[in-house]
Amino acid sequence: MSRQYEKLEKCCAYYRSRTGFSPKVGLILGSGLGGYAKNMKVETEIPYGDIPGFPVSTVQGHDGRYLLGYIGRVPAVVMKGRVHYYEGYPMEDVVLPVRLMKKMGIEILFLTNASGGINESFSVGDFMMITDQISSFVPSPLIGENVSELGERFPDMTHIYDRELMEVIKKTAQEEAVELKQGVYLQTSGPNFESPAEIRMYATLGADAVGMSTACEAIAARHAGIRVCGVSCISNMASGLSKEELSHLDVQAVADRRAEEFERLVTRSIEKMETM
Ligand code: HPA
User: Fold this and answer.
1) N or C terminus of the chain with fewer C-beta within 10 Å?
2) pTM of the predicted model over 0.85
3) pLDDT tens readout for residues 206-224
4) C-alpha 182 – ligand 1 centre gap (Å)
5) Could you give the residue numbers annotated as active site?
6) Which ligand 1 atom minimizes the distance to the CA of 114?
């Protein structure tokens, strides 16, 4: 058994000591969505700090806990707060929470985040459904001994974002009259924002938005056979694309302002995933 799987088994044993709940969908909340609990029927909460060996998020505004309950009729686990690579955890620990959700039983992972817009047709406050990703600027979470209990050594990444789930999100956006852009998300390590020259490079490489999370989680989820989808809130235009300098406070303020609509899009989409 790999060392990482042993660690996961310990986390899982703790989880099972707390609840027998078996969620179908996992949802990771990005900036601004910290108040999501009001959209679900919470049955159990597990602070990350209670779970032995679990990485604990240190970012302001990222309170760390699993919320277990129902989104509509769908049994779900929601991650209020995620761990970022820039906090200093190795990538394999950054994705431990995703792997634990796999062990809880999820089949679908819904990723959300706030990001900087690179595509010049985007505006601050837009929502971008993630159609593909570039993670080449951060280490793969799969480096090291393969966790063969979860997946294979060389997993395919042709369709990281599930085509059927994307259709559900698009249809939901239409029904809810939520404007939805689409594009490629690029993950950097952070924690610094990018330089304008880096953003020009990322644009050349085909990125539409940039952020400091998500792509590594999507890789770990695909490795473990979880179906993945994601939506990003464009909280600012990326460095050099607007006159403003970038600040975490501004990112949070825009994400907060867009939270209600974002939550509606996410909730209505997940409700439709009951039988998928
Ligand atoms: N860059 C990186 N991460 C981000 C940004 C950005 O401009 N906005 C929100 N998260």
Assistant:
1) N
2) yes
3) 999 999 999 999 999 999 9
4) 17
5) 31, 62, 84, 86-87, 114, 212-213, 236, 248
6) 9
Nearest-CA residue for atom 2 of ligand 1: 211
What confidence tens digit (pLDDT) does each residue in 75-129 have?
Answer: 999 999 999 999 999 999 999 999 999 999 999 999 999 999 999 999 999 999 9
Of ligand 1's listed atoms, the one at least distance from the Cα of 116 is 7
Please give the Cα distance from 93 to 85 (Å, whole number).
9
Q: Is 31 in the pocket of ligand 1 (CB under 6 A)?
A: no
CA proximity to 266, closest of 47, 28, 23, 81: 28
Q: Are 235 and 116 in contact (CB under 8 A)?
A: yes
User: Hey, what are 75's tokens?
Assistant: 């049994």
SS3 of residue 259 by DSSP: helix
Furthest C-alpha separation in the chain: 52
Distance 190 CA to ligand 1 centre (A): 9
Q: What is the mean pLDDT of the chain?
A: 95
Give every CB contact of residue 207 below 8 A, 6+ residues apart in sequence: 118, 134, 183, 184, 185, 186
